[in-house]
Amino acid sequence: MPFISRRLAAFALALPLALGAACGAFAQTRITVGYVAIPDLTPLYVAKEQGFFDKRGLDVTLQTIPINPNIPPALQSNSIQIGTVTPSVLMQAADSGLALKVIAGGSLLTRDGKVPAIVVRKGVEIKGPQDFVGKRVGVAGFGATLHVLFRKWLADHGVDAKKVNFVEVSLPQTLDLLRGGTIDVAVPAEPFATRILQAGVATAYGYVSDDFPESGVLPIVYGATAEWLARNATAARAFREALDEGIAFHAKNPEASRASMGKYLRLPPDVLATLAVPPLSTVVTEPQIRFWADAMKAQGMLKTSLRSADFIVR
Predict the structure, then answer these.
(1) Among residues 110, 247, 271, 312, which one has the fewest Cβ atoms lying within 10 Å of its Cβ?
(2) Nearest CA to 174 among 194, 196, 191?
(3) Burial class for 129, CB neighbours closer than 10 Å (0-12, 13-18, 19+)
(4) 175 and 29 in one domain?
């Protein structure tokens, strides 16, 4: 079954269609944003809580979608109008025929950011990259950022990723799956990696980010269908402007920004207080998209030739 059809069939049962569609008039534009609860989206939380969307005529509702590959079919069905999707999932959806475009970037993963971590359940012995062969590795969505990045990391270290048993998990469940022995290894995003390590059920083997290019890696973007954008170009620009204001607010008001983030991440205060927020930027460049295209081609994930420039809304 094609990527989109398979995901759409599953998602139709999971998310009510009554969440609302975008209205025609800008002053009354309603937008449901499907998001994964990670600190990379701090500008989204801030813009919602500080009224930056409201003052631009955007009635924005945030809807959690734990598994990232479920976001493109939700966009296709118009259950959501904007989704925080990983570049790899966006490109895989486009490869299957869904016209998606990038409205804005979310964050940037850098070498010194120590994200994502490779966490190994206590009792599982991993001395080198080859020891991941045969292990059950939890990733938040097949074809999503962490899955693609870890497979690239394995290949760069001489390991055949096909010999690793990947298990699709939701990020909030990763800790329990490690604790229960369902998976041996996980490559979680923050804040979940921190919570896992603090719980003492796993140790950090290393960091995928150690091998990132100096320019960093774009892990998540705000995407929408070309059809929706054709009808709502002004709203899309206003949405991006609200995110930019959220970034500026975060820089000047880190404590208030962290409080907004805490509402959507639902973390204990002690975890929230120490949670690192990665560099934030709405800017998306063609080389950033091309990094993903090259990695996905090397992993046999794309059947067609995709132009990086075609994904970016100017």
Answers:
(1) 271
(2) 196
(3) middle
(4) no
Distances from the Cα of 3 to the Cαs of 70, 90, 93, 294, in angstroms?
10, 11, 7, 20
Residue among 53, 46, 47 at smallest CA distance from 28: 53
Q: Kindly report, residue by residue over 17-54, the tens digit of the pLDDT.
A: 444 444 444 457 999 999 999 999 999 999 999 999 99
Integer Cα distance of 107 and 311 in angstroms: 17
How many residues in total does the chain contain?
314
Strands ordered across the beta sheet of 29-35: 58-64, 29-35, 82-85, 221-225, 100-105
Residues 183 and 279 in one domain: no
Same domain, 136 and 196: yes
pTM, rounded to two decimals = 0.78
CATH code: domain of residue 54: 3.40.190.10
Q: Which domain holds residue 277?
A: 3-108+218-311
